Fold:
Amino acid sequence: MLRAVKQAVGTTMTRQAMRFCERDPITNIPKLARLIERGTDLPNIQRFCRQAKALMADERNPYRSLILRIFNEIAPQVRRKFVSNFVINSGIVGAEQAMRNGRNLGVNIPWAILLDPTSACNLRCKGCWAGEYGKRDNLSFDEMDRIIGEGKELGIFFYLFSGGEPLVRKDDLIRLADTHSECAFLAFTNGTLVDPPFARELVRVGNFALAFSIEGRDEATDYRRGEGVYEAVLASMDIMHEAGAPFGFSTCYHARNVDAIADESYLDSLIQRGCMFGWFFTYIPCGKEALPELITPPEKRAFMFERVRDWRKRKPIFLIDFWNDGAYTNGCIAGGKAYFHINAAGDVEPCAFIHYSDRNIRTSSLVDALRSPLFKAYQSAQPFNENHLRPCPLLDNPQALLGMVLKTEAHSTRPLDEEDVRELTAKCESAAEGWAPTADTLWHDMASDYENRERVRRAERAFMEERGKKNAVGHHTRNRSL
Structure:
């Protein structure tokens, strides 16, 4: 009941606040931030309000430009749903609920769940991590509905879809978004099944976004995904942009496409087409048909590390580098720490790239799955490396995954090849050894920058405290003289 009240109040206030901001974002967002800052004594909220005011006052700040893009390019009901569902329900109400339930149940409750509605796909991409799953597995609508219902009770309000190609089940996914209208949804899609009616449905429900898989321009994308896929993705982006539907891109960088991915004009073209966010992944050699030669070499992974950080300072788009952002997430986020994966056969896996399991959602509740030996092994071992630029228990620390799978006797969830964990981790050993010295150098530089920033912050705090003392003394002296 308390959760429902908070969500209802939050939704009403969000709607009113968004309408106020929509009249004139540049002027009214700072006004709203000032009102909120004066009305709260919570330091985090006050700091957020100060940042919002500073951001909107800085015409060179790329996130100011991104906010204006959202107001100009995204349908109003989508904007409002994003704030109410993603920011309030998932980020505030849900986070509080998950923390409380986690303490009571003795488990860690993650922020998000990744589901595979189906293992079927209309493409066959080279080295796809899902390529060795069977093609006939599906989670039924009722099963997904139950998972999301249990998740909401725990405090999870963000759900992602992968596959296979999730839009093979797009009617069921729209129905889920309608049924669970207080949640936020995102599907990773190859982009070939989007049409104008579907884009209009995404706008109608307002709480469902797409991430288009794309790996550079035509030659780079079609190399792995098939001839003509690049043009099909661009056409789908245009359909979404015209409808005012929310979308971004998802890119897997590997040994052969880093130059294409890092081309600034390529990123600019995606922003121009309407992408509001971008997810960067690096290639993981899952399955016996995997191509280890596509593993990103150390110098190219370091180049992407620097490239993405540079773009964040200049480009009006929200970017995530799934592996190289371990510094912001205290290492690996999988295994129920911040998310986990349920494949189309119902197997509960630590990560989309780790195809081993000791629970199936068809015979387990979410709480039972979170208590599984494999998940407990994950969480007790996290972070897997003190250098958070080496976060992954497979790509960066293969002995960690080997030990956890053998200890818990988790089984392979790949019915076509049942890849032994020894074979999988062996493919990553040389890559982990090659990345380690480069990552350690980057980590040392980041730590130095962090220490310098902390010194500045400490000096600023000392200055403000000293000024506060002087002001207090002056105020006391003036009162005495009166």
Remarks:
- The first strand starts at residue 112 and ends at 115.
